[in-house]
Design a protein that fits this description.
alpha+beta; 2 domains; five-stranded antiparallel sheet; four-stranded antiparallel sheet; 13% strand; disordered N terminus; DNA replication; Rep; Protein rep
Length: 474
């Protein structure tokens, strides 16, 4: 898929956010209130700031143009469609742009990572719920390795990949694998006083009712083989100092207090799905996939504080905004972020892995297993037969309707720079006020030729007639 041109992407070429744009209407006509930033607004601003210095071309071009059938439109006079999701009986709702170019990077894009994590967590939450309702068990296993500031991220990733393969190698490994029905493995990393700290979160799906003692014994068997694999690569893990952590869902050991250090606030604003967890399925799912949202936990051994890559990015963006990007701290963070981007580009790291079918043992894939159990208990699961790719997730417009469209040139002139303000207007007042907001700024917006859009167009005509205000144009 060819990316769109990066021309005009620099923030300095854009109009400022809010109501101070140079293309606003004449003085006295700007009647829209100030708005407060949300988590989505912060991620959008971070994505735009990252575009000015990222080393990944596709990342720099995220939300920088429109696509058609997977191919970039090169300013051919097309129209960009604005899609809205307005709940029944409401006037306001969320706003999106149809066919906007997205990078689909789960590890480095503040916006794409959030949408990917939301879908992954929803699937995993449902899989855990099905497993528990079926009368079976789920355990959260975390595997790490010892590290220091002199170790590179790529070397640790290579060692941990080899150690993971070593767990299941040979007859003993396959016998150990027979004890579990399947797993969902999630990879993430933080950075602290002792350098990079990559680790696995593994959801183990266990047949029948397990006790914490049985679960701990299984975890130790897995850890011993994992540690042996690490040592073969010149690394090692300390079982009782963070190397092994396994907890069983449905027992006191996995209550909100126990996970409070793992589940924390959002990078750019609080993430309610992470903060307001209410049951085991929620806690396990978000613990596994919430790397885009959470702060790193307090390091129990050193008392230091690890930072997720997105926290590093937030600090770096703040320093650049304040003109402090030449300080020692900002220079260090810039080097860390470049290493993070380079490692993902070179290693093609998968964040998310569902266990596959084992034909030789007659064992289905985890996704098949969940769907079979869901059918047995009469549950309509959201777990699909085939996992969607990151690109499919971030370009999905399901749940919204195209209501209005603007010339593509206006997308580049106004919309991509003012998307935060537009989303706020949509959430607070709805499509009619978004339409007014765009016309006030001289954008040649029009209603789509669609049944839903025609109903909104009729409401607009009625509203314009009743208000008779110069604000809404002619």
């Amino acid at each position: 898929m060819t990316a769109p041109s990066a021309a005009g992407r620099r923030r300095g070429d854009a109009a400022p956010l809010g109501n101070t744009t140079p293309y606003a209407s004449a003085a006295g006509q700007d009647r829209f209130p100030d708005w407060e930033a949300t988590a989505a607004d912060g991620r959008s601003a971070a994505r735009r700031g990252l575009a000015t210095f990222t080393t990944r071309r596709r990342q720099a071009q995220c939300f920088d143009g429109l696509t058609t059938h997977g191919e970039t439109r090169a300013g051919d006079g097309s129209w960009a469609r604005l899609r809205f999701a307005v709940p029944d009986g409401c006037q306001a709702g969320s706003l999106g742009i149809e066919g906007v170019w997205r990078c689909g990077y789960w590890a480095t894009c503040p916006e794409c990572s959030a949408k990917i994590a939301a879908e992954r967590a929803a699937e995993l939450r449902d899989a855990i719920d099905v497993q528990l309702r079926h009368g079976d068990s789920v355990a959260l296993l975390t595997l790490t390795s010892r590290h220091h500031s002199g170790m590179t991220l790529v070397d640790q990733v290579k060692a941990q990949r080899a150690a993971w393969r070593a767990i299941w190698k040979g007859r003993a490994g396959q016998d150990l694998r027979d004890e579990i029905e399947g797993y969902c493995r999630v990879w993430e990393a933080t950075h602290g006083e002792n350098g990079w700290h990559p680790h696995w979160h593994v959801l183990l799906f266990l047949p029948g009712a397990w006790t914490p003692e049985q679960t701990r014994a299984l975890g130790e068997d897995i850890w011993q083989r994992y540690d042996a694999g690490l040592r073969a690569e010149g690394f090692h893990s300390l079982r009782d100092h963070g190397g092994l952590d396994i907890r069983l869902a449905g027992w006191e050991e996995i209550d909100p207090t126990a996970l409070g250090g793992y589940l924390a606030k959002g990078v750019y604003a609080d993430a309610p799905d992470v903060v307001d967890l209410v049951n085991n399925a929620d806690r396990l799912a978000l613990e596994a996939v919430a790397g885009a949202f959470k702060q790193a936990r307090q390091n129990r051994m050193t008392g230091g504080r690890g930072r997720t890559p997105f926290v590093i990015l937030e600090h770096l963006l703040t320093a650049r905004m304040l003109g402090l990007d030449d300080t020692r701290e900002a220079t260090r963070d810039a080097a860390l972020w470049r290493e993070w981007e380079r490692t993902h580009a070179d290693m093609t790291i998968r964040q998310w892995t569902w266990s596959r079918a084992r034909a030789s043992r007659g064992q289905p894939s985890l996704r098949e297993l969940v769907r079979t159990k869901a059918a047995a208990i009469g549950h309509a699961t959201v777990v699909t037969e085939v996992e969607r790719t990151e690109d499919e997730i971030v370009t999905d417009d399901a749940g919204s309707e195209p209501l209005m469209e603007v010339p593509e040139v206006e997308f580049h002139r106004v919309i991509k720079w003012e998307i935060e303000a537009m989303r706020h207007v949509s959430r607070d007042a709805g499509p009619l006020v978004v339409f007014a907001w765009l016309r006030q700024r001289g954008v040649a917006v029009r209603w789509c030729d669609d049944p839903s859009a025609r109903r909104w167009a009729a409401a607009w005509d009625c509203w314009q007639h009743l208000r008779g205000s110069a604000l809404f144009g002619t």
